Structures are given as structure tokens and as C-alpha cells.
Fold this protein.
Amino acid sequence: MASTTRKKKSQVVYYALLALLVVGLGGFGASNFSGTIRSIGTVGNRDIPVTTYVNALRRQIDDFGQQVGTALSFQQAQAIGIDRSVRAQVVTQAALDNEVSRLGLSAGDDRVRAALLAVPAFEGLDGSFSREAYAFALKQNGMTEAQFETQVREESARGLLQAAIVSGVAAPPVFTDLIYAFAAEERSFDLIRLTAEALTPPVATPDDAAIQAYYLAHPDAFTRPEAKVITYARLQPETLLDRVTIAEDDLKAQYQARIDEFVQPERRLVERLVFATEADAAVARTRIDAGEVTLESLVADRGLTLGDIDLGDVGHADLGAAADAVFGLSEPGIVGPFASDLGPALFRMNGILAGQEVSFEQARAELTEELSLEAARKLVREQTPDIDDRLAEGATLEELAAESGLALGSVDYFAGTDDPVAGYAEFRAAADAVIADDFPEIIDLADGGILLLRLDGVTPPTLKPLAGVRDQVIAEWTVAETAARLQARADAISTSLRNGATATGLGLAAESLGPMARDGSVDGAPASLMTDVFTMAEGETRVLSDQDAVAVVTLTKVLAPDLLPPATGSEAETLRRQIDAGISRSLSADMFDLFATALEAEAGIQLDEAAIGAVHAQFQ
């Protein structure tokens, strides 16, 4: 039994490593980095190939970019340490390869062959291994079959070594029991919620004395921060629209250029499941019609998901031979088999997107506005050189406003100001950076306009007049007064409960909640409720509060988990199994890290900083 377990773990590690190797094909090939550099260093007698480092680095940058939803520059990748992390990875890999070589471990041809046959990227249209697809994929990445198969053999041998290190690591039962006891413990408690409606008398509007006192006691809340006094001159396209005339022919030409936007034919939401032969597709259709299977089950049997067969919204011209049948459906359904570019297929129509047509007359106003603004932006661009020349001659913003039609304005600028001009990111960036005696420069705005600014001075932090913030003072006083009175009410209730009173006797409604585990939650209660509940002693009463809620909680029962073996299939068994597996994985990872660190120290690491720098230069 133990040997079977080790074999399974070995296979898991091996195929995981193979997957990483195949994914690496999507990165840079050797042809991307020319020159005489072949490695970035050595570990023991093992080189670290430059292509290994390049592929791993590219893959990590791309993966991180996908996680954050934006492409990552190499400078950004360096800033967050991706290059250092990748170097640590390839050093560990080289240390393992060095140890594999020292031990004389190797993978046989049968293992390499089985690995190649298992790679989806090397499959043909019929789902079996295709030598043409295999050769093409390697050629695209600048590798020969011998080079790739050598890497597969090395990955396999490395996987054997890793599996030998991590196999058989089991979580100590006492550790599992400890974590399980912590995670599975449950508690029951009574909760009394307090809201502003529970206050008698209710919080009233503060009088002038209370408003004045709160205003003076909290000056930071009503003080405007240091502000830059800025004068600006702005030329917006909208102000030049009266100088623009759009010809009828230009409107019609724009309408035709955007005809696909204004005239959209009917489209359908379609899925397509491809089969190896038309006979297979016909059998599947017959079984679906007979109710023996569903399209979903056929997709699952192929190891696919519905996302894999989804064509999205398509037009008649996108469906080839199946077009008439799909567009002939008036409600969702399945048609086929029909020929497709990938082979015989069944098509399922899931929805109809009605066509629409916006006539030229209906689009006229939108087209006129669009072309007029574009023409006005062009006028702004045409005036910009003259304005730039006047600036060079020493013209002030006031003179430019008088001569060139720029709108003059001023603002006391600080972070968070609500002045409309601060809505421009370009203005904010320039205002943040401007210093005394800076020469005004033309700033291009996102809407096609231009802006110039000048720093006239800096106003120190200033307490705003009470008259201007009176409503804000009243609102903040009301929040603070309500919180203080609720806290006092909660403290009084808590004292009464500790002295033997009951919620009912106090005329209050208590919710009896639980049993609940640590990851439970109660809507509308203080955020710390569950954390506090699991630090309380049975029978203890506490007042809990945050900015959103105030409550009195009494712990009524602590329910310790049963540490006896749980029933098969129960939630307790699932939780114990997850905890046990998590501990085992953590111990295995720690053991492997220690082993790899020892190998690196024993073999010795030599990194070629010049080679690494050359690689990084290619990413710039």
C-alpha cells in the first residue's frame, strides 16, 4: 500500500513538472537571444541555461500581469522582485539536476514517450498524438526534438528525486487534532443589538453652544489643508464649436464608416461540439433526442467545459453549413450534425440577439456632435503653436486669455478639492509638481483641450469658517453623540446582565444564535463579533462596538468538537481530511526547501551578473 501511495505522489509531481515545461514553450525560444551567452551561471557542475531563465522570467511576468489585469513592464517586474524569485527557482532546478546527475538517476524512453503522448498541445484534430503538431510547436520555439526530449527526460528524473523527498510525509496526529479542535469548535451566544431608535429620548439637533463646542474641539475635521493658489488658462474644444461647420457629405461618409455600429444583423448565442466522425456526431444527436444524454454530459465526458465549446454571439456568415439551421430556430435548441472547420459538429443555439438599424437621420445628431468636436479639437491643435510662441515671447496667462480666447480661472488646489478643473488628471499632475517661478507650459488634456497654469502662492492650513461647515459639524456631532449614548446604554445593560438581570426583564429582545464556528458571520453586528466570541469564557458578557453597530453579547455555551474518528462522509471527516492534507503539504514543502537549500550550499552557486544583465537588457 505504501509503495502504491508513493507511486501516485511521484506521478503527480512528475506531471506537474512536465506541465510547467510545456507551458514554457509559450515563452521565448533560443532564437530570441542571440550572441555567445549560453548560461547565467552554474550550480555545482550544472549550467543554468539562459533560455531556461528567459522562459521562466517571461512566464512569471505574464502570469502576474494576468492576475492584476494589466501588462507588466520589466521595470515593474523588477520592482516587485519577480526577477529575483525566478533566479531562485532556476538555481534550485539546477541544484536538483546536479544531484540527479551525481546519483545517476535517469528516465527511460518509455517514460519520455508516455509524457509526450499526454501533452494536449501535441494532439491532432482527432485527439491523438500528431508528429506534425509536435514538430511545428517545437520549431515555433526554436527547439529540436532531441533538445525537448532531453528536457523532458531531465524533468522526469528531477521529479523522481523530488517525489522521493516529499513522499510519505504525514501530518502528526496530535497536530491534526489541535488544528481540528481549533477549527471545529463552535459557540452559542445571545446578542442584543442597540440602534439609535432604542435611545430615549432620541438624539436631538444640537443647539448653537453644542455646535460651537464640537467645532472648536475638532479643528482637524474642519481645516482645509495647505493649498496652492494657482491661476490657469484653458482652451476647450467646446468653446470653438461656433467656428465649425460640418458638410452633409462628411456626415454621410462617417455614417458609412460606422455602418457596422448602426446596422447590426440578427446574431445568435451558439455552442459547438466537434466530433471525430459524422457517424459519432449522428449517434450523439440521436442519444440527445432520445433523452439518454445531454449536451452537458457529452461535454463533460470529453473532459471539456461549456466554456470550451462556446462560440459566443455569432452572425449567419460565421456558421458555415450550420447557418441556415441555427438561424431557422425560433427558440433555443440543438441542430446538426453539420460540417465545420474542425470537423462534424452539433450546434446548440442558446439565445437570439435581435438585429437593429439606426437610420442616417436618426444618427445625424450624434454624427454631427462627433465630427464637430473633432474639428474643434483640430482648431485647438492649430492654435497651439501660436500660443507656444507667445509664451516664449514672455506673454502672461492674462495676455493669452485676452488675445487667444483662453478661459482664465484660479483655484486653491489641494488633494481632494472639488473644483471642476481638478477633474483633469493632467491638471492634478502638473499642479502637484509646480513650484514657484516655474515657466508656464502647454498641457494637453484628454478631451483635446489645452491648459497652462502658474503658481501664485501657497496658503497654509486654514480652519474653515463655522458658517461654511455648519451642516458638517451638525452631522458629525450627531454621529458622535449617538455613539456615546449607545455605548453608555450598552454598558448599563451589560452591568445589569452581569448582576443577574435578563434581557426580557429589561424589556429588550435578545437573539439566541449558534452554534456557530469561527468563520461564521452575523449581518448588522459589529465586525469583531465572532473574533470576540471565541475569546470569551462561558457566561461572560461584553459590549462590542464599531462605527456601524453597538451590541451586548453573552456567551451561553462552548461546544468543543468530538476528537473521536468522525463518521465516513460527514462534514467533520471532510474537515479533518482537509486539515491533514494541508499540514502534510506544508511539511513536504518545508522539507523540500531545506533539502534544496542544502544541495545549493553543498554544490556551490556561481552566477554570471554580466549574462543576467544582458538577458535583462533584452526585456527593456
